[in-house]
Structures are given as structure tokens and as C-alpha cells.
């Protein structure tokens, strides 16, 4: 999100042009990129599935761009990355599987790529969770077990059950005290 003015009581958003006086060119580039990312609504975000690209795009923009390449792109799910121009399936989030339905592709490719297996193992080791809606990996660093993914989906970090209207649909505890209370100060109190 755009940073606010640091003066107390001022809620003005900083403009990128006014920040160029005190930010390095690299930080200006990062800020510009974050502004572009923030302009895309969460439900509209899609990432290129090619690891060397992974560009963030809006579903609307990528569909419009793909219409010139694919006949009936809306129906087929075929898309073309705006950055690398690679073809991919918007439904499966994988490189394009021409002449094959999504169901057939999944049936013929039941085993995930080695990189995906490594990520799943790393996630299991670190107890990360995956959003069931968009498959984004999430780590609980601190706080309660109510998660809100970047796609907007809300779920329980413990069991994965959906939260509806800010209410849990499971009976898991809402938090673990170790994730809420900072125990670093306890050592100082033992004198």
C-alpha cells in the first residue's frame, strides 16, 4: 500500500514523485512495483506459472491480451503471459496443455514436478499451510489461527476449515499462547 505522511495526524498518501528526493533508484523501482501490484484487486491477481518469469498480472489484462492469440480464450482457459509471452492455463495455473482438457492433463500428470515436492516437504517441516483456494503458501509467524490469504480466502491455520463472515466453521482453538505472548522479556524478570 502507499505509505502515509510520517507527520502525526497527517493522513496524506505519499506520491512516488515526491519520494525520489530521498529514496535510492532501486527503492523507487520497488515502490513503483508495489503501487502497480496494489492496484490489482486480490481476486484479479494471477501469476505466470513459468518459474523464470512469475510475473504478476490481472486476469482481465491477460485475457484481453490472449484474445489475439487464442480463439475462444474465455472458454478454453488459454492465456499468454504479458511479460514472457509464455502460454499457460488460467484454470490449472500450469504451462498450456494444448489439445487436452484440464481434467485430462491432471489425469496424465498425477505427480507434481520435483520443485513442487521439495516445496511441500519444506512446508511440512516448517508447518506452513497452503490456501485451498489459490494454493499460496502461508506461514504463521505470530498471532491467532484465523488466516486471510492474499486471495481473500479466510481459513483456520490448524485444520484448514473455511471461516465464513469472520466466524470459524471448526472447533479448533483460536490461538496458542506461544504465538501471542512475547516471552523474550521473561528472562529479565527472573532476577
TrEMBL record:
Keyword Acyltransferase in record: no
Q: Which residue positions does the secretion signal occupy?
A: none
- List the GO biological process terms: protein ubiquitination
Catalytic reaction list: [E2 ubiquitin-conjugating enzyme]-S-ubiquitinyl-L-cysteine + [acceptor protein]-L-lysine = [E2 ubiquitin-conjugating enzyme]-L-cysteine + [acceptor protein]-N(6)-ubiquitinyl-L-lysine
The cofactors it requires, by name, are: Zn(2+)
Top EC class, one word: transferase
UniProt-listed Gene3D superfamilies: 1.20.120.1750
Do you know which SUPFAM superfamilies this protein is assigned to?
Answer: RING/U-box (SSF57850)
Query: One Pfam family, short name please?
Result: IBR
InterPro entries named among the record's database cross-references: E3_UB_ligase_RBR, IBR_dom, TRIAD_supradom
Give the top-rank taxon of the lineage listed in the UniProt record for this protein. Answer: Eukaryota
Provide the alphabetized UniProt keywords: Metal-binding, Repeat, Transferase, Ubl conjugation pathway, Zinc, Zinc-finger
Entry's PROSITE patterns?
TRIAD
Tell me which CDD domains the record gives: BRcat_RBR_unk, Rcat_RBR_unk
Which EC numbers does the record give?
Answer: 2.3.2.31
The RING-type domain extends over 1-176
The molecular function terms of the Gene Ontology recorded here are: ubiquitin protein ligase activity; zinc ion binding
Q: What is this protein called?
A: RBR-type E3 ubiquitin transferase
Origin species, per record, is Olea europaea subsp. europaea
Amino acid at each position: 500500500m502507499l505509505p502515509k505522511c510520517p507527520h502525526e495526524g497527517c493522513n496524506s498518501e505519499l506520491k512516488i514523485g515526491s519520494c525520489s528526493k530521498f529514496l535510492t533508484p532501486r527503492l523507487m523501482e520497488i515502490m513503483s512495483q508495489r503501487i502497480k501490484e496494489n492496484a490489482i484487486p486480490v481476486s484479479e491477481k494471477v501469476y505466470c506459472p513459468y518459474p523464470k518469469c512469475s510475473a504478476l498480472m490481472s486476469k482481465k489484462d491477460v485475457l484481453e491480451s490472449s484474445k489475439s492469440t487464442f480463439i475462444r480464450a474465455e472458454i478454453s482457459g488459454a492465456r499468454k503471459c504479458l511479460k514472457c509471452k509464455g502460454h499457460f492455463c488460467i484454470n490449472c495455473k500450469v504451462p498450456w496443455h494444448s489439445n487436452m482438457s484440464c481434467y485430462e492433463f491432471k489425469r496424465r500428470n498425477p505427480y507434481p514436478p520435483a520443485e513442487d515436492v521439495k516445496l511441500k516437504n519444506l512446508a511440512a517441516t516448517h508447518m506452513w499451510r497452503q490456501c485451498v483456494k489459490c494454493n499460496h503458501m502461508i506461514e504463521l509467524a505470530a498471532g491467532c489461527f484465523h488466516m486471510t490469504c492474499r486471495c481473500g480466502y479466510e481459513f483456520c491455520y490448524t485444520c484448514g476449515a473455511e471461516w465464513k463472515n469472520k466466524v470459524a466453521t471448526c472447533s479448533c482453538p483460536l490461538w496458542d499462547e506461544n504465538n501471542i505472548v512475547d516471552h523474550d522479556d521473561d528472562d529479565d524478570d527472573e532476577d
